[in-house]
Amino acid sequence: MQGVIVDRPLSHFVGLKVVATYDNIAEAVAGARGTLLARQYELSNILDPDQQLGVTLPMEQEETSDQVTTYIGFTVASIPNPPPNMFNIELTQGRYAQFDWKGPFDTEAFDNFYPSMFAWFQQQQGLVPSTTSPWIEMYGRHNNWDDRSDANNEVSVFVPIGGPPAS
């Protein structure tokens, strides 16, 4: 797995909150995406309605250790007052490590995708993931959200780069 360092501008996100166990998060996000698409008319300033983002806040605390919280939504031109049950998040400007995946999501290779990001960081001198800035997943336009086996599924993950590693 090869990461690429990119500079991301400040951007704004509005979406739905999803809380699930690690085992069920993929299905929960796909279900929330259906709700999001049905409600997108409530957002007048979506930059690209064909592209959804997943956002994870590293400082967010879940009720139990087997849960994860993420958000599914859109990049918007500005942060308005979000519609009911939607959340706005400012996506920090800065350096990110970008990792890209294209292919089925139900394979052993994809199961190793996220752990390989951490392995990549361990191989880099002086780079560590940020513990305060949001992680961003950008889902490809050709994803088949109903079929994790589809070879056209794709995701780009942007991991914010933090300060120097602890000694």
Overall description:
With 167 residues, the chain is of the alpha+beta class. The protein has a single domain (4-160), classed as Regulatory factor, effector binding domain (Multidrug-efflux Transporter 1 Regulator Bmrr, Chain A, Alpha-Beta Barrel). The chain is built from three helices and eight strands, in the order ββαββββααββ. The chain has an eight-stranded antiparallel beta sheet with strand order 1-6-8-7-3-4-2-5. It is globular and about 45 Å long. The relative contact order is 0.24. The model has no long low-confidence stretch (mean pLDDT 90).
Would you tell me the overall average pLDDT?
90
Q: How would you spell out the order of helices and strands?
A: EEHEEEEHHEE
CATH superfamily: Regulatory factor, effector binding domain
CATH topology: Multidrug-efflux Transporter 1 Regulator Bmrr, Chain A
Helix content: 10-25%
**Sheet with the most strands: spatial strand order:** 1-6-8-7-3-4-2-5
Strand elements, count: 8
Q: What is the structural class? A: alpha+beta
CATH architecture name = Alpha-Beta Barrel
Work out the strand percent.
25-35%
* Helical stretch tally: 3
> What is the highest CATH level, the class?
Alpha Beta
Low-confidence regions: none
Give the overall silhouette: globular
Q: State Rg.
A: 16 Å
- N-end to C-end Cα span: 25 Å
- In total, how many domains does the architecture comprise? 1
